[in-house]
Design brief:
By secondary structure, the chain is of the alpha+beta class. It has helices at residues 2-122, 124-132, 137-264; strands spanning 282-284, 287-290, 297-300, 303-306, 312-314, 319-327, 331-339, 342-349, 351-352, 359-360, 365-368, 379-386, 389-391. It contains three helices and 13 strands. The strands form three sheets. Strands 1, 4, 6, 7, 8, 10, 12 and 13 form an eight-stranded antiparallel beta sheet that branches.
């Protein structure tokens, strides 16, 4: 009846723990979602900031390229302007030469006109008189050659002046066409410069906007990172709380299972088997004694039986292993609950061969003799407890 009452109490308390764990799990789920969202927001802000900085780098590269293009265009514009200036000078020089040639042509033409007019006024007799006034044949030939030379000179000079004028007019046409071409190039180059400047102004405005965006995104990223840290801290706290509650629930369930297991045992009568069948000499009995290591008088809650390391230790009665592990001064320890509030303890083992929660039967091999914990040599320390109060084991062996 005692175990049934204990199990009933555990079942009454269990829903409260389950409810508390459910609330913690819901809070854990909410904080986990918040943490995912916070991390996603940080990643989004990082991506935006990275993208903005990449765009800034691209715009800077474009501005550098435009700047070089503007320098090249300015140099080309200077070259065109110099070419135009040189052409203007050549046109001016050609105009001056053309005017001089025309003046020379006009002057020569006036000389020729005067000579022709004089010949017209004197008629052909005047030229014949000049020839027949010669005193000799050689003089006649000389006069004839002179008249012919003068005529040819006048004709050649006029022809030469006409050719020179024609050549200079052709050169003037070439210079004019070159000037028109340079003016077209100058116009195109100026338009290109204006286009480059427009692109530069556009990129500068865009870079200024990107700079503002970068500052804003950096601030938002800092806020998002702070929110992420807060979410991580809250999540770590709820995880720790959830672990604590799960551990508590696991302990409660283990205790419930253990008590359920004990309730299934037949009503134990308190009769135990000797825990180390191959050895029977008790080296230290139950009661007050001088502790062999601590050297103080203290209660010895069991009996010590010496045996070589590795000697087989058995379960003294049917039961369930409450604990199997390391326990401070006891070293490797096994505790078995047998029902009806009885339990046994086996300590200083070199090796435990059972696990917590395991069902054991009287005589099962549960551990090996050792000297772990506070021990002066290989032996088994054996205790019997009733309601968790140590009793003299020598009164319970049958």
């Amino acid at each position: 009846m005692k175990y049934i009452f204990l199990i009933l109490i555990i079942f009454l308390l269990l829903p409260v723990t389950v409810w508390a764990s459910t609330a913690t799990r819901e809070r854990h789920r909410q904080l986990e979602q918040q943490l995912r969202e916070a991390r996603q927001e940080v990643r989004n802000q990082q991506n935006l900031l990275t993208g903005t900085r990449h765009e800034m780098s691209r715009v800077i590269a474009e501005m550098q390229q435009l700047d070089q293009q503007m320098v090249d265009a300015a140099e080309a514009l200077d070259g065109i302007e110099l070419s135009l200036l040189d052409t203007d000078i050549r046109i001016s020089d050609t105009n001056d030469a053309l005017q001089a040639a025309r003046d020379e042509y006009d002057a020569q033409f006036e000389v020729l006109r005067a000579r022709v007019r004089e010949m017209h006024e004197q008629g052909s007799v005047g030229m014949i008189d000049v020839l027949f006034q010669a005193e000799s044949i050689s003089d006649f030939l000389l006069r004839w050659e002179f008249i012919r030379a003068v005529s040819e000179y006048d004709r050649d000079l006029l022809a030469s002046l006409q050719v020179s004028e024609s050549r200079m007019l052709s050169n003037m046409d070439d210079l004019t066409r070159w000037t028109n071409l340079m003016e077209d190039l100058l116009f195109q180059q100026q338009r290109e410069m204006e286009h480059f400047q427009f692109l530069m102004d556009e990129r500068s405005a865009w870079f200024e906007q990107l700079t503002s965006d970068e500052e804003m995104l950096a601030e938002l990223l800092a806020i998002s990172e702070a929110e992420q840290r807060m979410a991580e801290s809250a999540f770590e706290e709820i995880q720790a709380q959830l672990r604590r509650e799960e551990n508590q629930l696991a302990r409660q369930r283990a205790a419930q299972q253990h008590n359920e297991n004990l309730a299934r045992l037949n009503n134990f009568n308190g009769q135990f088997a000797w825990p180390i069948p191959s050895h029977g000499r008790v080296s230290s009995g139950f009661g007050m004694r001088l502790h062999p290591i601590l050297r103080v008088n203290r209660m010895h809650n069991g009996i010590d039986v010496g045996a070589p390391v590795g000697t087989r230790i058995i379960a003294s009665a049917d039961g369930y292993v409450r604990f199997a592990g390391w326990s401070s001064g006891y070293g490797n320890t096994v505790i078995i609950d047998h029902g009806n509030n009885y339990s046994t303890l086996y300590a200083h083992n070199s090796r435990n061969r059972v696990a917590t929660g395991q069902r054991v039967t009287r005589g099962d091999h549960i551990a090996d003799v050792g000297s772990t914990g506070l021990s002066t040599g290989p032996h088994i320390h054996f205790e019997i407890r009733v309601n968790n109060v140590a009793q003299d084991p020598m009164s319970y062996f049958r």
